[in-house]
Amino acid sequence: MRILIAAGGTGGHIWPAISFRNWVQEQDPDSHVFFVCGNRGVEREIYIHENIDPVFLPMEGSPLSGDISEKVSRSYDLCRSFTISRDLIRSKRPDICLVFGGYISFPVIMASLLAGIPVVLHEQNARAGKVTRICRILGIRICTGWERCIPLEEKDFLPVGVPVRDMDLMEPEQAWKMLGFAEDLPPSPRCLVLGGSLGSDPLTDLAKGMCSNEQFRDLNFLVVGQSDPFRKIERNLWLIPKEWKVNLLYSLADIVIARAGSSTLSELVAFNLPSVIIPWRNASDDHQMENAILFAEKGFGSIWEIDNGILENLAFMIDYELKRARLGQAFAFSRNRNHGACEKIWDLVQQTVEGRGRN
């Protein structure tokens, strides 16, 4: 089978796509998977790290956002991207287009439909994005990372889960050594602060405030993505460069503070890591809050809000999640279920190519 995968914008869209591609290569080596993405730096970084050579569309944002000049420029880029996608489909002749989201999805979807290529979309978030809502109207098959996908009705989608990178945790000392830091590994409890593939200045500022607060004096904070090179800036605060081998970072963590990107949440669940989630409220359609609510409802972690949150509550949540993990009360999740997500997507892809089944 020849599969065109469209995935771009952020790591939250790209990593599940790459995880699925890796699974396909193991299960069906005769299949050929090729990628198309946008033109942001983070997209290039991720694909280069994975030794994947995608087709880069000249898009760096949605034509629905920004000021008038940005909307005009992005609309022009959208038209160019449609032409490139159309030519790519004509040359590669895929059997199906599998879309994992991001602002680059729309021109690829439209070029596929006009060429008579079937499309399947995977929505990672608990709130459907604009492209996903358009796909529902167009009758495109939709699979989702969660059992809920607002505002879609249950009949509109198939819950399959989010493909997660095939990673192993290791002893913290080994992971620290592999990261190459000269300083000694900070003692436990270690709090890993993750701002997602694009980083998060507010989370960095939060950690800087917490490290000098008496309530958090026993925690050592490892803040990822806001420093190059590695720096220790306080007694218990380290700034760590962006690292795509996130299993090394997860191996260091006794607890994680993170944004509510769906891929990050899926990885936290997969590795059963105690966590406090701080949703980014400016995310499109506030989808991170929907992700976080579902995450907390399932007992995977706690939610704290950075804009109106009280540090005493955050300290309580961190202590609660650490104690719950020590007592073995945290939700146990088998990473083998990640293969289940890939299998379900693969089944849907095959059904769609063969013209079988419904969502």
Describe this entry's structure for a reader.
- It is a single chain.
- The strands form 2 sheets. The protein has a 7-stranded parallel sheet, with helices on both faces. It has a 7-stranded mixed sheet with strand order 10-11-9-8-12-13-14, with helices on both faces.
- The two termini are about 20 Å apart.
- About 40% of the residues lie in helices and about 15% in strands.
- The chain is an alpha/beta fold and about 350 residues long.
- The protein folds into 2 domains: about 1-165 and about 335-355, Glycogen Phosphorylase B (Rossmann fold, 3-Layer(aba) Sandwich), CATH 3.40.50; about 170-325, Glycogen Phosphorylase B (Rossmann fold, 3-Layer(aba) Sandwich), CATH 3.40.50.2000.
Q: How many strands in all?
A: 14
CATH H-level name of the largest domain... which superfamily? Answer: Glycogen Phosphorylase B
* Alpha-beta classification: alpha/beta
Low-pLDDT segments, ≥5 res: 332-337
- Quick one: biggest sheet? 7 strands, parallel
In the CATH hierarchy, what is the class of the largest domain? Answer: Alpha Beta
First and last CA, distance? 21 Å
Tally of alpha and pi helices: 12
| Rg over CA atoms | 21 Å
CATH topology of the largest domain: Rossmann fold
Order of helices and strands: EHEHEHEHEHEEHEHEEEHEHEHEHH
Q: Per CATH, which architecture of the largest domain?
A: 3-Layer(aba) Sandwich
β-sheet strand percentage:
15-25%
The helicity comes to 40-55%
Look at the structure and give the mean pLDDT: 90
Strand order of the largest sheet: 3-2-1-4-5-6-7
Tally of separate domains: 2
The dominant shape is globular
